[in-house]
Amino acid sequence: MSAVSGDDIVAAAVVIPVHNEAALLNDCLAALCAALEHTGRTHPHVRVCAVVVLDACTDASEGIARSWPLRTLRIDARNVGTARRVGMTAALTALGEVPSRGIWVCTTDGDSTVPPTWLSHQLELRAAGADVVLGTVRPDFADLTAEHAEHWLATHPRGRPVGNVHGANLGLRADVYTRIGGFADLDQHEDVELVRAARALGARVVATDENEVVTSGRFWGRTPGGYAAFVRATHERIAGSARS
Fold first, then answer.
1. How many structural domains are present in the chain?
2. Rounded to a whole number, what is the largest CA-CA distance in the chain?
3. Whole-model pTM?
4. pLDDT tens for residues 90-112?
Protein backbone atom coordinates (compact mmCIF):
# COMPACT_ATOMS: atom_id res chain seq x y z
CA MET A 1 0.00 0.00 0.00
CA SER A 2 1.13 3.58 -0.49
CA ALA A 3 2.79 5.11 2.55
CA VAL A 4 0.90 7.66 4.60
CA SER A 5 2.58 9.95 7.09
CA GLY A 6 2.14 9.22 10.79
CA ASP A 7 0.52 12.57 11.56
CA ASP A 8 -2.02 12.39 8.74
CA ILE A 9 -5.16 11.75 10.80
CA VAL A 10 -7.30 14.86 11.31
CA ALA A 11 -10.68 13.20 11.93
CA ALA A 12 -12.15 10.04 13.39
CA ALA A 13 -15.42 8.22 12.72
CA VAL A 14 -16.78 6.02 15.52
CA VAL A 15 -19.75 3.67 15.07
CA ILE A 16 -21.72 1.77 17.72
CA PRO A 17 -24.37 -0.69 16.46
CA VAL A 18 -27.17 -1.29 18.97
CA HIS A 19 -30.01 -3.80 19.06
CA ASN A 20 -32.03 -3.77 22.30
CA GLU A 21 -29.17 -3.00 24.68
CA ALA A 22 -31.06 -0.80 27.16
CA ALA A 23 -29.57 -2.61 30.17
CA LEU A 24 -25.98 -1.94 29.08
CA LEU A 25 -26.11 1.02 26.72
CA ASN A 26 -25.82 3.83 29.25
CA ASP A 27 -22.53 2.45 30.57
CA CYS A 28 -21.34 1.92 27.00
CA LEU A 29 -22.00 5.50 25.95
CA ALA A 30 -20.68 6.99 29.19
CA ALA A 31 -17.40 5.17 28.62
CA LEU A 32 -17.32 6.18 24.97
CA CYS A 33 -17.90 9.86 25.76
CA ALA A 34 -15.12 9.72 28.35
CA ALA A 35 -12.80 8.30 25.68
CA LEU A 36 -13.81 11.02 23.21
CA GLU A 37 -13.16 13.71 25.84
CA HIS A 38 -9.74 12.21 26.52
CA THR A 39 -8.96 12.21 22.79
CA GLY A 40 -9.96 15.86 22.66
CA ARG A 41 -7.20 16.58 25.16
CA THR A 42 -4.52 14.36 23.64
CA HIS A 43 -5.36 15.00 19.97
CA PRO A 44 -7.12 18.40 19.91
CA HIS A 45 -6.66 18.68 16.13
CA VAL A 46 -8.71 15.51 15.49
CA ARG A 47 -12.39 16.06 14.77
CA VAL A 48 -14.58 13.15 15.91
CA CYS A 49 -17.99 12.07 14.63
CA ALA A 50 -19.60 9.25 16.63
CA VAL A 51 -22.80 7.56 15.43
CA VAL A 52 -25.03 5.23 17.42
CA VAL A 53 -26.99 3.01 15.04
CA LEU A 54 -30.26 1.83 16.60
CA ASP A 55 -31.13 -1.30 14.68
CA ALA A 56 -34.72 -2.50 15.15
CA CYS A 57 -34.71 -1.49 18.81
CA THR A 58 -37.95 -2.14 20.67
CA ASP A 59 -36.70 -1.32 24.16
CA ALA A 60 -35.48 1.93 25.73
CA SER A 61 -32.22 2.01 23.77
CA GLU A 62 -33.22 4.96 21.60
CA GLY A 63 -34.10 7.18 24.54
CA ILE A 64 -30.83 6.30 26.26
CA ALA A 65 -28.79 7.00 23.13
CA ARG A 66 -30.46 10.37 22.58
CA SER A 67 -29.55 11.44 26.12
CA TRP A 68 -25.88 11.56 25.10
CA PRO A 69 -24.20 14.15 22.81
CA LEU A 70 -23.82 11.67 19.96
CA ARG A 71 -25.44 11.28 16.56
CA THR A 72 -28.15 8.64 16.41
CA LEU A 73 -29.55 6.79 13.43
CA ARG A 74 -32.51 4.39 13.26
CA ILE A 75 -32.63 1.44 10.88
CA ASP A 76 -34.60 -1.79 10.72
CA ALA A 77 -32.05 -4.21 9.27
CA ARG A 78 -31.57 -6.61 12.19
CA ASN A 79 -28.08 -7.12 10.81
CA VAL A 80 -24.89 -6.03 12.56
CA GLY A 81 -22.88 -5.74 9.35
CA THR A 82 -25.49 -3.45 7.84
CA ALA A 83 -25.66 -1.41 11.04
CA ARG A 84 -21.90 -0.86 11.08
CA ARG A 85 -21.84 -0.01 7.38
CA VAL A 86 -24.76 2.43 7.50
CA GLY A 87 -23.34 4.10 10.59
CA MET A 88 -19.91 4.44 9.01
CA THR A 89 -21.41 5.92 5.85
CA ALA A 90 -23.24 8.50 7.95
CA ALA A 91 -20.12 9.37 9.93
CA LEU A 92 -17.93 9.69 6.83
CA THR A 93 -20.60 11.80 5.15
CA ALA A 94 -20.62 14.13 8.15
CA LEU A 95 -16.84 14.42 7.76
CA GLY A 96 -17.26 14.84 4.01
CA GLU A 97 -14.78 17.66 3.52
CA VAL A 98 -11.98 15.59 5.05
CA PRO A 99 -10.08 13.32 2.62
CA SER A 100 -10.45 9.64 3.53
CA ARG A 101 -6.68 9.29 3.97
CA GLY A 102 -7.00 11.73 6.88
CA ILE A 103 -9.77 9.83 8.74
CA TRP A 104 -9.46 6.97 11.22
CA VAL A 105 -12.57 4.78 11.52
CA CYS A 106 -13.34 2.53 14.48
CA THR A 107 -16.15 0.57 16.06
CA THR A 108 -17.28 -0.80 19.37
CA ASP A 109 -20.55 -2.40 20.51
CA GLY A 110 -23.56 -1.39 22.57
CA ASP A 111 -22.85 -4.04 25.20
CA SER A 112 -19.23 -2.97 25.66
CA THR A 113 -17.25 -0.32 27.55
CA VAL A 114 -14.07 1.18 26.16
CA PRO A 115 -11.25 2.53 28.35
CA PRO A 116 -10.61 6.31 28.39
CA THR A 117 -7.49 5.95 26.22
CA TRP A 118 -9.17 3.69 23.64
CA LEU A 119 -9.31 6.06 20.68
CA SER A 120 -6.20 8.06 21.53
CA HIS A 121 -4.15 4.86 21.66
CA GLN A 122 -5.43 3.78 18.24
CA LEU A 123 -4.39 7.17 16.88
CA GLU A 124 -0.94 6.71 18.41
CA LEU A 125 -0.62 3.31 16.76
CA ARG A 126 -1.68 4.88 13.47
CA ALA A 127 1.04 7.53 13.94
CA ALA A 128 3.51 4.66 14.34
CA GLY A 129 2.41 3.19 11.01
CA ALA A 130 -0.58 0.93 11.67
CA ASP A 131 -3.23 0.69 8.97
CA VAL A 132 -5.51 -1.58 11.03
CA VAL A 133 -5.62 -1.98 14.82
CA LEU A 134 -6.99 -5.16 16.39
CA GLY A 135 -7.78 -4.62 20.06
CA THR A 136 -8.53 -7.26 22.62
CA VAL A 137 -11.91 -7.82 24.26
CA ARG A 138 -12.58 -9.54 27.54
CA PRO A 139 -15.87 -10.61 29.09
CA ASP A 140 -17.19 -8.77 32.12
CA PHE A 141 -16.00 -10.96 34.97
CA ALA A 142 -19.10 -10.02 36.97
CA ASP A 143 -21.07 -12.18 34.50
CA LEU A 144 -18.82 -15.23 34.91
CA THR A 145 -17.99 -17.85 37.47
CA ALA A 146 -14.70 -17.45 39.34
CA GLU A 147 -13.32 -20.47 37.48
CA HIS A 148 -14.21 -18.97 34.12
CA ALA A 149 -12.60 -15.63 34.99
CA GLU A 150 -9.44 -17.37 36.20
CA HIS A 151 -9.32 -19.40 32.97
CA TRP A 152 -9.62 -16.27 30.87
CA LEU A 153 -6.78 -14.54 32.72
CA ALA A 154 -4.58 -17.62 32.48
CA THR A 155 -5.11 -17.95 28.73
CA HIS A 156 -4.68 -14.24 27.93
CA PRO A 157 -1.27 -13.22 29.33
CA ARG A 158 -0.57 -9.49 29.12
CA GLY A 159 1.64 -8.30 26.32
CA ARG A 160 0.87 -11.28 24.07
CA PRO A 161 -2.27 -10.36 22.09
CA VAL A 162 -3.38 -13.19 19.84
CA GLY A 163 -4.77 -10.85 17.21
CA ASN A 164 -8.38 -12.00 17.16
CA VAL A 165 -10.78 -9.69 15.35
CA HIS A 166 -13.50 -8.04 17.44
CA GLY A 167 -15.91 -5.41 16.13
CA ALA A 168 -16.05 -4.11 19.69
CA ASN A 169 -12.39 -3.04 19.46
CA LEU A 170 -11.40 -2.37 15.88
CA GLY A 171 -9.95 0.58 13.98
CA LEU A 172 -8.49 1.27 10.55
CA ARG A 173 -7.69 3.96 8.02
CA ALA A 174 -10.75 5.24 6.20
CA ASP A 175 -9.10 4.97 2.79
CA VAL A 176 -8.44 1.29 3.45
CA TYR A 177 -12.03 0.90 4.61
CA THR A 178 -13.45 2.53 1.48
CA ARG A 179 -11.19 0.56 -0.86
CA ILE A 180 -12.55 -2.65 0.67
CA GLY A 181 -16.11 -1.44 0.17
CA GLY A 182 -16.97 -1.19 3.86
CA PHE A 183 -18.62 -3.71 6.12
CA ALA A 184 -20.56 -6.44 4.35
CA ASP A 185 -24.24 -7.03 5.10
CA LEU A 186 -23.47 -10.05 7.30
CA ASP A 187 -25.27 -10.98 10.49
CA GLN A 188 -21.97 -12.17 11.98
CA HIS A 189 -18.22 -12.07 11.24
CA GLU A 190 -18.52 -8.83 9.28
CA ASP A 191 -15.51 -7.61 11.26
CA VAL A 192 -13.45 -10.69 10.37
CA GLU A 193 -14.27 -10.29 6.68
CA LEU A 194 -13.30 -6.62 6.75
CA VAL A 195 -9.89 -7.38 8.24
CA ARG A 196 -9.36 -10.28 5.83
CA ALA A 197 -9.95 -7.89 2.93
CA ALA A 198 -7.62 -5.30 4.47
CA ARG A 199 -4.85 -7.87 4.74
CA ALA A 200 -5.41 -8.79 1.09
CA LEU A 201 -4.75 -5.16 0.20
CA GLY A 202 -1.44 -5.30 2.05
CA ALA A 203 -2.54 -3.25 5.04
CA ARG A 204 -0.25 -3.27 8.07
CA VAL A 205 -2.27 -4.92 10.85
CA VAL A 206 -1.25 -4.33 14.48
CA ALA A 207 -2.65 -6.30 17.43
CA THR A 208 -2.65 -4.80 20.91
CA ASP A 209 -3.98 -5.60 24.36
CA GLU A 210 -3.10 -2.25 25.90
CA ASN A 211 -6.62 -0.84 25.70
CA GLU A 212 -8.86 -3.79 26.33
CA VAL A 213 -12.59 -3.39 25.84
CA VAL A 214 -14.89 -5.04 28.38
CA THR A 215 -17.95 -6.64 26.85
CA SER A 216 -20.94 -8.48 28.24
CA GLY A 217 -20.20 -11.96 29.54
CA ARG A 218 -23.66 -13.18 28.60
CA PHE A 219 -23.97 -16.61 26.99
CA TRP A 220 -26.58 -15.68 24.39
CA GLY A 221 -25.88 -12.60 22.29
CA ARG A 222 -27.42 -10.63 19.45
CA THR A 223 -25.64 -12.63 16.73
CA PRO A 224 -25.55 -16.44 16.46
CA GLY A 225 -21.76 -16.78 16.39
CA GLY A 226 -20.60 -13.64 18.14
CA TYR A 227 -18.62 -13.13 21.32
CA ALA A 228 -21.38 -14.60 23.48
CA ALA A 229 -21.01 -17.91 21.66
CA PHE A 230 -17.30 -17.90 22.47
CA VAL A 231 -18.00 -17.17 26.15
CA ARG A 232 -20.63 -19.91 26.28
CA ALA A 233 -18.33 -22.47 24.63
CA THR A 234 -15.51 -21.61 27.03
CA HIS A 235 -17.82 -21.97 30.02
CA GLU A 236 -19.10 -25.33 28.80
CA ARG A 237 -15.55 -26.56 28.26
CA ILE A 238 -14.54 -25.50 31.79
CA ALA A 239 -17.66 -27.08 33.29
CA GLY A 240 -17.01 -30.29 31.38
CA SER A 241 -13.43 -30.47 32.61
CA ALA A 242 -14.62 -29.96 36.19
CA ARG A 243 -17.07 -32.88 35.88
CA SER A 244 -14.55 -35.28 34.36
1. 1
2. 61
3. 0.86
4. 999 999 999 999 999 999 999 99
pLDDT tier for residue 218 given thresholds of 50, 70 and 90: low
Instruction: Tell me, yes or no, whether 44 lies in a domain.
Output: yes
User: Range of 51's domain?
Assistant: 11-139+160-215
Residue 110 domain flag: yes
In this predicted structure, what is the pLDDT of residue 6? 43
Within a domain: residue 237?
A: no
> What's the CATH number where 27 sits?
3.90.550.10
Identify whether 234 is part of a domain.
no
116 CB neighbour count, 10 Å cutoff = 17
